[in-house]
Amino acid sequence: MKRTKGFALGLLALVMSLTGCMVTPPASEVGWVTLFDGTNLNNFNRLGDANWRIDNGIVVADLGGKDASYLVTKESYGDFQIRAEFWVDSDANSGIFIRAQNPAKIGADTSYEVNIFDKRPDPSYGTGGIPNVAPTMVPIKVGGQWSTYDITAKGSQLTIVLNGVKTVDVRDTKFAKGPFALQYGGGVVKFRKVQIRPI
């Protein structure tokens, strides 16, 4: 009897230990692919001469040449959601360019630029807006704090949410697919988590 009871307890402990090893991710994380997790930039190609580097798990750029510089994804995406955590100083010029048509030449004429530019001369297309496509519905300044972009591109529908506030909700058919790029244009720019989920 003691032997049977001991065997049953041992079997129960084994099952519990095995099932405990199989952790189910929370629903909010299902389907997301982490492209930058603080350890390497293997999912990106560098374009331009900014001093992109990893510092304490954060990708940082604070020095560049006369032209903007980018980290461009090696993969191309059509319909997707992006979550990106970023920090910029108040003088920074940055952004996330999506559906880029030419990964060797990123620009607002050949992709959608989800802007990070608190001091843009035309503030309607500043942080939270898409220049030449959609002005920001809610002007938001992000300099000096960690912020999160939630970017959704599904067909012609583009939706931008910045720190929980919807800043763009627009339809545009110019670009359907392409890589996306993190920009350094000036100031101090940091990214600490970049994820994408095909939809």
Structure description:
The chain is mostly beta strands and 199 residues long. It has one helix and 13 strands, in the order H-E-E-E-E-E-E-E-E-E-E-E-E-E. Strand 10 and strand 11 form a beta hairpin. The chain is globular, with a radius of gyration of 21 Å. The chain starts with a helix and ends with a strand. About 10% of the residues have low confidence.
Task: Provide mean pLDDT, rounded.
Answer: 90
Q: How many H/I helices?
A: 1
Structural class: mainly beta
Number of strands: 13
Segments where pLDDT lies below 50 for 5+ residues?
4-22
Which of globular, elongated, flat, extended, rod-shaped describes the shape? Answer: globular
Q: Could you give the order of the helices and strands?
A: HEEEEEEEEEEEEE
What is the helix content? 10-25%
Task: Write the SSE topology.
Layout: H1 2-21, E1 33-36, E2 44-47, E3 53-55, E4 58-61, E5 69-73, E6 80-88, E7 93-98, E8 112-116, E9 146-154, E10 157-162, E11 165-171, E12 181-186, E13 189-198
Antiparallel strand pairs: 1-13, 2-5, 3-4, 4-13, 5-12, 6-9, 6-13, 7-8, 7-12, 9-10, 10-11
Summarize the structure.
By secondary structure, the chain is mostly beta strands. Helices cover 10% and strands 39% of the residues.
Key features of this structure:
single chain; 199 residues; mainly beta; 8-stranded antiparallel β-sheet; 5-stranded antiparallel β-sheet; 1 helix; globular
